[in-house]
Design a protein that fits this description.
heterodimer; A: alpha/beta; 2-enoyl-CoA Hydratase, Chain A, domain 1; seven-stranded mixed beta sheet; 10 strands; B: alpha/beta; about 50% helix; disordered C terminus
């Protein structure tokens, strides 16, 4: 009875207040959470532990010590090399909506004091998709890390290659993987953090080539989309398919780390892999 | 009638005439007139094929497959099996062979000739063990200093539950990782369908050739149309938008040479198609073989490093707005 009474009331609250951004509804437990409380809790649902997606800047704030981030290549902008339908408009809208120039933020900073090169994909910007600019900036991050003798930490959140740049987006897989190879040859560590969601061409390139793979709880991580797989095999997919926990069982990620411990864990890993010994 | 309808009507007419011609030939009748008509129509239909026409040619059931090229281009072919980790994937061919008498490693997507073989080979859609078998052979080539020839023809990497469990993405990434650092010369030919990451996994090389009516795309036109217009039926428009033909990719700097095919597609004359591919493979391999390994790896790095198009935005539009630390340079 109480539940029956409460629900309509919550919905009316939702209708009135969500546009103002006071309350957020958890997509997993469907409970309404006071938005400020959610923010304080690093956007992890205090009721069920669901890790809400972070924007690129939010992820950067979580990971990089305050006042230490120095952005690289913020001035690279996409072109529309194929003259692809609706791309120019959608790109402009993404820039306006997010206030950011592309789907990745790259630079150097300190993670609990450890100097590192960082690339953070931004799912808010065209689904974090990798086109020419994302590929170029990620590749430059690895190359600069080699020059500066820094470890690399990437945080992926991406639907994959950017369809609107066609096969040029596909070539960014090769470009970024080649750059990972340079870091590898230089003997520098690479921690790949897999956030919700990481799929397609980003998983099939640099994101799966980390020395250590760290995933956030519940994150969707995979290559093919669930719908495509269902259509191909004509079966329902198993419970928890393509989640971080599933990947851990399959031996594809090393650690699942709750958001509150992410920064400390990454820093610890970098220390253990020999980073941070030289002050950069 | 729209252009597309007009084109489709002419294609149907061509098919009918070709069938008629085959029947007349079989019955020993005089076919000179009809042959001339067929040839004229074929030229009209294929002089400037639409991207969708090319997609259909690339997927044509009679299009020469890996097996057809293996027997026509290579000698002394020995297929090798297994990734030494999990199993053997029939969707990927890997082995040793001779090209112009010289030993090489050959890897390729293995489509079948008929439905039964295609079911067995998953229509050339590899599982992770296929890519890991390929990578094993790439490493063997590196060890022995043998050149690699990779023949690409796949709709996609297989989208399946087990493929994900065994790390499809990792297998693709690792195979690319192996190829970009290989000391051996690597020449790739896209012979049919170049289906996104599933193709690129064995498609990174010093030279990438593409058959005239092959396609290479980040997503199939049907999938693109479904995303863009929520209507898979607009695949023809999507095929144009994606710029997936050999000529498009030559202009975008993704492929190095277009290998000519007989008018209307390689299946009309597999011998001639294979001869053209053979000639191109030999020539490019000869060129990249002449470089010392370190130089070759550097050139390969630069080749992929250059791919993509972007520009510099005016500085005032550049600063990400809601991260106060972005301006805080130290």
């Amino acid at each position: 009875m109480l539940n029956w009474l409460r629900r309509p009331k919550y919905e009316s609250v939702e209708r009135r207040d969500i546009p103002a951004g006071l309350w957020a509804k958890c997509p997993r437990c469907a409970q309404l959470v006071y938005r400020k409380e959610l923010e304080r809790n690093l956007k992890v649902c205090p009721k069920c532990g669901y890790h809400h997606r972070l924007s690129g800047p939010e992820r950067l704030r979580l990971l990089v010590d305050e006042g230490t981030f120095q952005e690289w290549d913020a001035d690279l902008a996409s072109e529309d090399p194929l003259g692809f339908p609706e791309y120019a408009d959608r790109y402009r809208q993404a820039v306006q909506r997010t206030g950011r120039p592309e789907a990745v933020l790259c630079g150097r900073g300190r993670i609990d004091g450890v100097p590192a090169a960082v690339a953070v994909l931004d799912f808010d910007f065209l689904g974090g998709s990798m086109g020419s600019v994302v590929g170029e900036k990620v590749a430059r991050t690895f190359e600069r890390a080699v020059d500066l003798r820094l470890p690399v930490v990437t945080c992926s959140a991406s639907g994959g290659a950017r369809m609107q740049e066609g096969v040029l987006s596909l070539m960014q897989l090769a470009k970024t993987v080649a750059a990972v190879g340079r870091l590898h040859a230089a003997g520098l560590p690479f921690v790949s953090v897999l956030c919700d969601p990481t799929t397609g061409g980003v998983t099939a390139s640099f994101a799966m080539l980390g020395d250590v793979h760290v995933a956030e709880p519940g994150a969707l991580i995979g290559f093919a989309g669930a719908r495509v797989i269902e259509q191909t095999i004509r079966q329902k997919l198993p419970e928890g398919f393509q989640t971080a926990e599933f990947l851990l069982r399959c031996g594809l990620v090393d650690l699942i780390v709750p958001r509150a411990e992410l920064k400390a864990t990454v820093a610890r890993l970098l220390h253990l892999m020999g980073a941070g010994e030289v002050v950069g | 009638m729209t252009d597309a309808q007009d084109r489709a009507a002419r294609e149907r007419e061509l098919e009918q005439l070709e069938e008629q011609l085959a029947q007349m030939r079989a019955s020993g009748a005089d076919t000179a007139d009809l042959e001339a008509r067929v040839q004229a129509l074929r030229e009209a239909v294929w002089r400037h094929p639409s991207p969708w026409q090319v997609v259909q040619a690339a997927r044509h059931p009679q299009r020469p497959k890996l097996g057809d090229y293996l027997t026509r281009i290579f000698t002394d072919v020995v297929e090798l099996h297994g990734d030494r980790l999990f199993g053997d994937d029939p969707a990927v061919f890997a082995g040793l062979a001779r090209l112009d008498g010289e030993p090489v490693v050959v890897v390729g997507h293995h489509k079948g000739k008929d439905t039964r073989e295609n079911v067995y080979r998953r229509w050339g859609m590899p599982n992770p063990e296929g890519y890991r078998k390929a990578a094993r052979l790439f490493r063997l080539a590196d060890k022995l200093g043998l050149p690699v020839v990779a023949l690409v023809d796949t709709p996609a990497a297989y989208p399946g539950v087990e493929a994900e469990e065994r790390g499809q993405a990792e297998a693709i990434a690792r195979s690319i990782f192996t190829l970009v650092q290989l000391r051996s010369p690597v020449v790739v030919a896209i012979t049919g369908e170049g289906g996104s990451g599933g193709a690129l996994a064995i498609g990174v090389g010093d030279r990438v050739l593409m058959m005239q009516y092959a396609i290479y795309s980040v997503i199939p036109p049907e999938g693109c149309a479904a995303i863009l217009w929520r209507d898979a039926a607009r695949k023809e428009e999507a095929a144009s938008a994606l710029k997936l033909t050999a000529q498009d990719l030559l202009e975008l700097g993704v492929v190095d040479e277009v290998v000519p095919e007989p008018l209307g597609g390689a299946h009309r004359d597999p011998d001639r198609a294979a001869a053209a591919l053979h000639e191109a493979l030999t020539r490019h391999l000869g060129e990249v073989r002449a470089l010392p390994p370190e130089e070759r790896i550097r050139c390969r790095y630069d080749k992929y490093r250059r791919m993509g198009r972007f520009s510099l935005r005016p500085a005032h539009a550049a600063a990400p707005s809601d991260d106060p630390r972005s301006a805080d340079v130290r």
